[in-house]
Specification:
19 strands, 3 domains, Rossmann fold, seven-stranded antiparallel beta sheet, elongated, single chain, Thrombin, subunit H, alpha/beta
Amino acid sequence: MQNKVYHRIEQITGSVIVVQADDVINGELAYVDSTHGTSLAQVIRLENENVFLQVFAGGRGVGTDSKVRFLGKTMQVPFSENLLGRVFTGSGAPRDNGPVITENMIDIGGPSVNPAKRIIPRNMVRTGIPMIDVFNTLVESQKLPIFSVAGEPYNELLAQIALQAEVDVIILGGMGLKHDDYLFFRDKLDESGALSRSVMFVHTASDPTVECLLVPDIALAVAEKYALEDKRVLVLLTDMTNFADSMKEVAITMEQIPSNRGYPGDLYSQLAARYEKAVDFEGSGSITILAVTTMPGDDVTHPVPDNTGYITEGQFYLKNGRIEPFGSLSRLKQQVNDKTREDHRTIMDTMIQLYASFKETLEKQSMGFRMSEWDSKLLKYGERFENEMMTITVNLPLESALDAGWQRYCIKADR
């Protein structure tokens, strides 16, 4: 069927244009001819005969007489083994100067998996990071946010997890990344050899806003295909607050009625639609999601972290360059902690109790109280705990971390 072409644009607001058209579906792609060339656009809203499109390259150069040609299809991304080791933009175009992949195109943004096809999470995802493996174990098919603030090394943490996680495929979705952060991820994975099992979809701060909105859907569509091929897939997303801010920007442009702090009213549904793609398939692979969510002003009641907390199964708090043991939570860790080692829970609980006592001792010290011999031991314990367990650059297998907790800490800290 020949694609319909329209020669009149009714309205132009920033990067959003409006045409009157029929037989168009939400999410459909179109080409828009402007004085700067031909740009890709996507339908983002239907209102009677009015069709709202977001122009990827922005509205500059687009006039009311520009030509709009609908393609009759929604956004798609190729799926192939050739994706591994590659870096793409938020719209799926090569960013690494490699060849364009066109075979086996798949739709993005589909529904989450039928609950009847899911199985109860039961397998640990080893990351080599003690604050995760020992204290808040990551479980296959889990969805967990990393709550942080600007300036914390959350991208370094994701890169470390990508290097060390015992999974088959890593899919990194970057949203609003600084160019230096993009280069950091690419070079870090490349130097370690982890890029060969990774696929990167990167939207930088200078790229079109609409591409930021596409990143989670593209990353998760590819992850689902790999999972159906019996692969254990770990999806790393950074930063979901940038994703939500892009939603807000589009909503303001379209003059939608704002909700809390200007975010669209369907923020919860939009976030849930992505997080609920985490799944463990019966008889096949799995998708596990770790997503950075920065908190403006370190405010956990901000709409993005607040809504995220209702959707996900716990959270990691990254503060002062470390994953905090207090506040961090993996609600599914009980599913696997009894299967790791018999003394896992005992060591975990004892170490946290000692660290809590260390914090109390620090308060006593700051107020000038006299330190007992036990207090002195706690101060030494706390320093070693922070340096040898809490540092995010540590690469320590679970068993070694448990042995360290038993041999170096619990016994030496004993009265």
